[in-house]
Each structure stands twice: as C-alpha cells, then as structure tokens.
Amino acid sequence: MASAATSAIAGFRARGIALAPAGAVAVFLGGGAIFLLVGCLQSTNFARLTVEGLASGAVYSSLALALVLVYRASHIVNFAQGELAMLTTYIAYQLIQWGLSYWEAFFATLAIAFVLGLVLQVALIRPVLHRSVLATVIVTVGLFILIDGVVNWVWGGDFKVMPSPFGNGSYVVGGVAIPHLYVGMLAVVFACVLLTWALFRFTKLGLGMRAAALRPAAAALVGVRVDRMLAVGWGLAALLGAVAGLMAEPSQIFLSPTLMQSILVYSFAAAVLGGLESPAGAVVGGLTIGVSLNLVIGYVPQISSELELPVAFAVILLVLLIKPTGLFGRREVRRV
Amino acid sequence: MTALLELEDVEARYGPVHVLHGISLAVEEGSVVAVLGPNGAGKTTTLRAISGTVRRSGRIAFAGRPLGRAGPDAVARLGVAHVPEGRGTFAELTVWENLKLGAYSRRGSIDDELERVFTYFPWLSERRRQPAGTLSGGEQQMLALARAFVQRPRLLLLDEPSLGLAPVLVAELFRIVRELNEDEGLTVLVVEQNAHLALQAAHAGYVLEAGRVVLAGTSAELQADDAVRRSYLGY
Q1: Which residues of A touch B90 (CB under 8 A)?
Q2: Predicted ipTM?
C-alpha cells in the first residue's frame, strides 16, 4: 500500500506538482513498506501484528478522512466526529434490532449519517461558522457531550452485541491466519475511500466542493453555492465516520458509548501525520499509525496496550513540533 | 437598446467605512463601458456591489429584474461573470478544472465554449493538466478571462485586467474583449487604471471620485474632456 502511494507521488513529482511530499517523505514511506514486507516474510508473528495493524489503521483512515474533509472546508477540527460515528453505529444496531439484515442496516445507516451530518452543519455549525473559530470548535465539543448524553439516555451505557458482518473464519496465507474480519474491514474502508476520491475527482459536485473549500469567495463568483457545499461536506464526513464506527465495532466485540473515543485520538494523530489538509495523507497516516502502534505494543514489552493512547498523543505532538505540515502537507504552489 | 444593467443610488460600505455614496450608472446591452477614477474612488467596490460580494443598498437591476439581496452565487447564475482583481483562479486546481468551474452553473455540454476559448487562448489547451498556480501572472489573468467566457455571461465584470501584465499582453487582452463584444455581443463593464486603453476599447465611460460619479459620457466625449485628459490621460 505504502509503496503504491510512493509511486503515485513519484508520478505527481514528475508532472511538477509541488503538493507531493518531499523526497525524504517518499524515502520514509518506501523504507517503511520494505521494512514491513521483509518483517512479514521473516516472522509470522510480525505478519499477524502487521495485518491486525492495517485493519485498525483502515478504521483510523476512514475517521481521519472525515476529520480532513471538515478541516479543509471549514478550517476547524470537528471534535464530535468520533461521537457522531458512535451514534450512527448505535443507529445501525437499532435497525438490526428492528429486523434489518446487517448489510441493509449498513447502507441505511450510511444514508442516515449523511443526512444527519448535513442537518447538524446547517442547524448548529453554519450560524457560528463565520463568527469565530473558537465558537465553532466549542459547538463541536458541545456536540460531543450532547451525543454522548443522548446515546446513554436512549440505549443505556451497557454493552450491546451486534452480529459480525464477515463471520468468524480466517484465511491462511503462508502459515499466517488472517481473519475474514480484517480483510473485510480493509475492503470496505478502501471501497469508501476510492468512492470519495472519485466523487471529488470526477464529478461536478466534487469540483464544486473542492472550489468552495479552497477559495469560497472565488467559488461563489462562478455560481457555486458555498454554504450548500460545506453542508454536503459535513454529510460526507459523517458518512465516512459511520463507516469507521461500523468497521470498528466488530473488532471491539461489544458496542458501548466509548466505542470511538480512543479511535478519535488515533485518527486525529493520523490526520495530523498526513498533514490535516490532505485526504491521501489521512489514509496513509491512518495505516501508518495503525501498523506502527500495533508493532510497538507487540514488540516493546514496556509499552502495554494501556500506553497506546499516550503514544498516539506523542505522535501528534512530535509531528506538530517537527513537521507541522505533516507528510503530505500542502506547500503553496501559487506564483505571484 | 435597453440597459442590461442599471444602478440607482447604490451605496456600499466595509464595516464603518462608507465607500460608495450613491452611484448611478447604466450599461447598455451589447456595449463596453469603462469605469475610471483614482485609487480609492470605489471602482472595485462598484463591481463588487453588482456581483454581491459586498453588502449594498440602493437599486441594482439586471435585465430589468432587481437583484435585491442576491448573493454572489445567485448573481453569477443570472449570467454575470465577475473576474475580480487578483483573478480569482484556483491555484491548486488544474487549468482544465478551472475552466470547468466556469460552466458550473450551466447544464449540458461545454465543448463548444471550450473550443471557442481554445481558439482565443491556444496554449491553454496544451497546459490543461497543469495546476493553475504554476502559470505566470499574465497566464492566470488570461485563464480567469477564459473561465469567464466559459460561463457564457450576459455581462462580464472585469476588474483591473491590466494589473501586473506586460503591455503586449494587456493589448492582447483588450483586443480579445473587444472582439467578443463585436462578434458575440458580450456586454462588458471594465474597471481600469489605464484610462487611455480603457477608453479606446469602450463605447462609454464613467469617472468616479470618492464614491460618486463625477462625469459620464461616450468614450469620445470623455477623451475630449479637459479634466479627464489632464487627470487620466496625461496630455
């Protein structure tokens, strides 16, 4: 995966696009990919940890992408993104309770999540967006608390059990057992990432959304309804969050209101690592965080899973201190 | 001929700063009209008031319909293309995507418009995959103009198109604007520091000072006016 990303970067560089990361980043990602490949061939334990890390990394990627979409459009971090994902997972749970099959509930939940994100943006974010960044961020924090309260009130704080979407079997590849679940998680997340990319790259709506995020005033002058684009962006982010929540749930065995709280931190680390403005960076960042955390916990006995969260925080801090633009951060390409 | 655009007693302010103190002007359909005046006279703000990028009061009618409180996106969809000062191109998007954005509020195929644009600016076709930010300032200005043509507007608002451009490019730009006006009847309202050039291209003009219209007339009348000659034409 990482090597595919680097070759794409090489392509961008060949075409003279300065938004591709510097050579050092390409070397870092390429080296990481080779390290993982050699490690997997050497040790089945390493391979198991890597695949597990990729699967959880896919979840971080999805939520990180949601954070990046909102950040690009509104220049704020939506602290409620994880709780929104948790809420939509509960909605899926409820739909299954009402008799829908898992995949019926899955797609219905994505649709509900989209509408929910859109409505929240129009009702709560739009009124404060142009007043102050701080007010907007506080609204998202309030939303975090509100959603948490509502979920506890409606469904209670006890654990719920959802059916497994991919069964409990495993594929065996070269002596390494890879659960269907992990393959399924990766496949679903990447299908969503690809669809999102295609939407932005190939459709008129996507072009309008990019224009509205980059330069709202100039976008309005060609007739783009900027407010509407921002709302659609929130809807899309909520949809990607729902995918993250639904894919995170089975690996945690139970559904509880704290489902996404640590995942939000990992995803935030992933988004920061990727450069906060770069969708590709969010995806690469998510996989990097997922795999490296899992390997660190697996091989460094001093760092147990209880210390996973502080490690993720350390990553955020280090990136912000050393390279605030992240791996894929945008460099200005404007010539004056 | 009826006026495509009419401003009546239009005022605009940025916060507490009053910039326009009751501007009235009219742009006939199929004409090129220049707005002249010193820095800070409110020329740019006049264009911004029309396209709705600044809050305005007074009456603005486009094609006989009052614009009211219509925002920039709504005005654009009515058929007004505003090429702002500083061009308003998207540096991060490719040349092709910038052109496609011109057709954002239109349905159907834009192949005809693109072909037309490429006859005026053949080099745009070769560089369509390039991010607009890698073009030179002059090329970006041409791209902004090309995108405005793709919008297929009834009215083109051009703000300081000569700013930062080499003289040969400025002449080329005004030649293209004039050609589009003559061949396709495009109506243009242009704000320009270079009064000489603007009055050559325009049929009529308005001179603004301190947010008010101080002089109006045909290009010939303005070119013959002593005050205009002394202040803006320099002879």
Answers
A1: 210-211, 214-215, 218
A2: 0.89
